[in-house]
Amino acid sequence: MEKDFFDRDPKIVARDLLGKKLVHEEHDGRVSGIIVETEAYYTKTDKASHTFYRPSALKFFLNNLPGTAYVYFTYGNHWMLNVLTKDGAVLFRALEPVEGIKKMKIRRKTSEIKKLSNGPGKLAQALGINGAHNGLHFAEKKIFVKETNLAPQIVEATRIGITRDSHKKLRFYIKGNEFVSKK
DNA sequence: TTCGTGATAGAG
DNA sequence: TCTATCACGAAG
Fold first, then answer.
1. pLDDT single digits (tens) A35-85
2. Which CATH number characterizes residue A121's domain?
């Protein structure tokens, strides 16, 4: 991953992340998957972004560098993994499991591969991501993104689970991939 | 479709 | 204190 990869417009980063590998390096081995679905959020101009209605989130975005993990807890159950970019962030929404599948199955309490990481909450659970990872920089290589030789076909769509600015096409996924959370 | 779950933030 | 809301997921 080239330096300054994350120091670009969130929409560009969201697209470029598709087909790359998201890795969580743990003491007992690595857990990873191909990124198949992402969403972009903008710090200042996006009403759907946490920065728009959560002062603490705005502070976090403004006080951390692109490439920093933004992990938050919601709906009483779920952790969400994002990475900061220039003027925004990208939410990791779905992965195609690659390494550590056995561990993912235990964490997710299912043996069905397709249900391991086909959604943002599921993905974080499968990878073992939680609040302890908030603020870690991807350059530290605990959580990070790795290049692949894939060149996926990308589909652009509206974001999921938001109300404000729901018409904006800031969701991206790999065409035809069976791990995408929704069509 | 409905409902659980808990942090955050603003109002009272 | 109280209440609304929420970048979700599982069950039915």
1. 999 999 999 999 999 999 999 999 999 999 999 999 999 999 999 999 999
2. 3.10.300.10
Q: For chain A, which residues score pLDDT lower than 50?
A: none
In whole angstroms, give the CA distance from residue A181 to residue A183: 7
Q: What is the pTM of this model?
A: 0.97
How far: A153 CA to B6 C1' (Å)?
Answer: 38
A183 half-sphere exposure, CB direction, 13 A CA radius: 4
Residue A73: CB less than 7 A from any atom in strand B: yes
Question: Is residue A3 domain-resident?
Answer: no
Strand C reaches within 7 A of the A159 CB: yes
- Which tokens go with A66? 């692109």
Which residue range(s) make up the domain with A154?
10-174
Nucleotides of C under 7 A from a protein CB: 5-10
Q: Is the CB of A95 under 7 A from strand C?
A: no
